[in-house]
């Protein structure tokens, strides 16, 4: 009986209580998830040095203590050797753009495309004008020849 009473009490305690509020709270989709960690270049250099100095049986201990994977350390080591650790990569845009910033970027891209299209069309028009001018001179020359032959 004691077990049943404890179980019933536990079930009642675990049941959600109904809310009387008619307003629902909206949560972000990543609420409750851990945030992605970022590491400074100094930290990466320190961990790579510590990892490399550790004896072969102790390397895993360094990774577990820091909560890292060996692939991260390998990637950081490659970046150090290439001299790219600590440099800013320009190929990946910032993830946290505001709607206004995203709209501005979209409009700037559109302006750039329109300007390049206009420049290309101006060149085509200039080429056609030059071709018409040459054809006009050719026609004038042929007319002059025909008048000379008639007369």
Automatic annotation (TrEMBL):
BP GO annotations: DNA transposition
Residue span of region Disordered: 1-39
A GO molecular-function descriptor: DNA binding
Bias (Low complexity): 12-25
Matches recorded under InterPro entries: Homeodomain-like_sf, Transposase_8
Protein name as it appears in the record: Transposase
UniProt lineage: Bacteria, Bacillati, Actinomycetota, Actinomycetes, Mycobacteriales
């Amino acid at each position: 009986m004691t077990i049943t009473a404890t179980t019933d009490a536990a079930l009642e305690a675990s049941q959600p209580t109904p809310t009387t509020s008619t307003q629902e709270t909206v949560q972000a989709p990543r609420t409750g998830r851990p945030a992605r960690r970022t590491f400074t270049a100094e930290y990466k250099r320190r961990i790579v040095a510590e990892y490399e100095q550790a004896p072969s049986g102790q390397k895993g201990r360094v990774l577990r203590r820091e909560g890292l994977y060996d692939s991260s350390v390998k990637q950081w080591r490659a970046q150090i050797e290439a001299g790219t650790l600590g440099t800013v990569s320009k190929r990946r845009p910032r993830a946290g753009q505001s709607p206004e910033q995203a709209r501005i970027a979209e409009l700037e891209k559109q302006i750039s495309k329109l300007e390049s299209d206009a420049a290309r069309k101006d060149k085509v028009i200039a080429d056609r004008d030059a071709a018409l001018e040459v054809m006009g001179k050719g026609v004038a020359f042929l007319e002059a020849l025909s008048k000379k032959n008639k007369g």
